[in-house]
Batch of 3 targets.
Target 1
Amino acid sequence: MFDKGRVGLALGGGGARGFAHLGVIKVLEKNKIEFDIVAGTSMGAIIGAAYAAGVGVEELEKKTKEFFSSDLFADSPLMAISRASQKGEQRWLKRMKNILREKLFFARALFHPGAIPSAELLPLVSYFVPDVLIENLPRVFRVIATDLVSGERVVFSRGSLRQAVLASCAVPGAIEPIKRGKMLLSDGGIVSIVPVDAAREAGADFVIAVSVDMEIGHWQGVTSSLGVFMRAGDIAAENLKRQELKRANILIRPNVGNSHWTDFLRVSDFIIAGEEATTQALALIEKGLPQQNRLRNWLYNRARQLGFKD
């Protein structure tokens, strides 16, 4: 009687800003908007993996706040870099250089493919992501990484959930890539910052994309050759992202401003930003949902109007 459209949720990368995904999922759940498929890149992979594994959004939010007030985080390199990004008005590269030197990471970065060993990221991933196989999850889930050897996108649909997420979160230059067979795996955001295509390929007919990366904005002008080089890379990445986002049905863009990817001290603000952006997008989402989903939501809302409880 109704079309059997499958709904997918594509959660983008963005470091600490990715905790806005929790706010997005919270509002979708509250309004009984269900999705069959989740795809995640980088921090979107962490949040998506936990949710696809059956961890409730309320529990995830609680775990998030507990983690970032814990000794585990306080003693981590992520905390050191997060604090460095808040100090004074020095340029970010100078602040990063100083903190890496303080933590002996700068010397490591000169002779290793990442300033921070991937093992240092594992406690964060393990805290949120259960040690299970992707193919055994109760919800279809895809993790996106990049193979630095071939330059190709890698989509994980099987195997260790934690290892796939760890590879997806290996921020280039900051966290060393993960070696797997002949591949050298790094952040999925290099090739697919918001994994709309992976959600489509997994069978989604209707995709809600959540983008939490920084807008490139207007450049203030040439200050160095390194600045020109980095700007050129930002432009290329932005255009790649825009092309993929065109293939989403709905785009949710939480107002995370220009917060740095290491700004983990603001996760509560990012969660609220996700809630607000999704609330604003609800009418468009419900209008665009496949017929069977619209009927389910209409029945639910009608029942609430008549006084029935969940």
Target 2
Amino acid sequence: MDYETLKLIWWGLVLFLLIGFVVMDGFDLGVGMLLPVVAKTDEERRVLLNSVGPVWEGNQVWLIAGAGTLFAAWPLVYAASFSALYVPFMFLLFGLFLRPVGFDYRSKLPDPLWRRWWDRALVMGALLPTLVFGATLGFLLQGLPFRFDSALRIHYGAFDFNWPLLLTCMGTALALLMLHGSSFLQCKTQGVIAQRCARQSRWLGPLASILFALGGFWLSQMRGYRIAEIGDLNSALTPLMKRVVTAPDGWLGNFMAHPWLWTVPALGLLLPLLSTLASHLGRARLAIVTSGGACAAMMLTIAIALFPFVLPSSLDPSSSLTLWDGTSSEGTLFIMLGIVAVLMPINIGYTLWVYWVARGKMSTEQVREQGHSLY
């Protein structure tokens, strides 16, 4: 297997892990944001928390795996992105910190005020990561303010905020993950809670599609990059061993060059609407499959638009990092590929087993009968 093929494989693996996180942990975040909306009593809120109770920690493994993969496979991408986005990532971590303590401490005391404050913490623990993830995708599309000097030292500049794009990306993330959470709750709850979730889906699906289309419009108005010249893709490259120019079609160049790729953003537009329709018809499983598919399609749309770029630079286009020049050595990628070949099937198999064991619906009756052992 040559170096160029390894680079492509690792681009696919990183994308797979990030999509896995959005799909698997996305409904957890959606449930957290829906907590005060579809659960009106303490027992109903406990139903929501315990519907994701057996799986939410395992779902966050996808995020940990994705960050670890960036560090090992794309060290320059890891260094540049985590430094440039230090402040929003601190908000992300703060939000993620609120989730485990919120789950563990909320029901320790019966005091309504105690539980109400922990409910707010759980909502913030879902809202903050969702907003940061949406904003991060917006920053990727507009480029981060970094550049490399001749010694490959990274220098940073000030952000030039594209507020229409950023706000649209954050709004899309909110609507999409709330739709995904609503679809999940329709599978895991019954009665009035499931009915409220179905009502929420009526507007969340169309809103997600509208905002995704609006994001596409803003993207079409932006400059994009293309590689005009680069060294041997099968060799070790540095970020400055290429020449990058502004693309006439912006970030839509890949779609223009390969029209069949338009099916991906088309699915991103259509699947949220299908999820809403499935909820209206009482087809909960179809609703969550289509909302999860919408998450994957939207993430894949961004990846295709940027390809082969993975971290564009707004200061110096030629300093932008691509899958060809932001990777680790050939030996590192090959060894890690072997590790992934062993661990990934174990992770997927364990995840499937947990979901099988935790199948079934959660109800207020179960909360009353088993309350001492539940969240």
Target 3
Amino acid sequence: MAGLSRVGDALRFTHQNGGVLEAKYMESIDRLLAELKAEYQEKDKPAEIKTPPPLKAAQKAEPQALQTYQAPPPPKTKNSSPLYEGSLIAELKTEYEERDRAEELKRQQQVREEQRRQQQLLAQQRQKLTLAAQAWLKELEPLSEEGLWFEALAEKYPSRLEAAIDYLQALQGKNP
């Protein structure tokens, strides 16, 4: 059933290219479907019968008209009908689409989990920085050169704590 994997590859290629099936893949799919149909027909085909049919009066007069008799082809079975082949392709296409959707959902879930993990990490870092900024503010002497400079800086922030957090972040950026 190597043919089915080639059909699957063509369908996957088609799905990835927005549902447009190139002519070379259509020919390949048609050829593979014909091979599959031939396989099923060979399995269902009865053995050739070597006995001649009853002779009609006209045939009795002409002995060269006798040939080996072949049974008429069997009626089309469900497995060899175009509807079955179409449903097989549709089933394969649906299977690949479902697999693609499942992979996409899994990828989206991983992205959400990574974002959540990053947010938690940032929140933890912010919490540590806040504690360090509070401790730094307690030790800051307001009348020292650094204290006066910081008070001028803090006027541009909503709070002294926010100013201290930014200041400590800047210091950490310079001294990792």
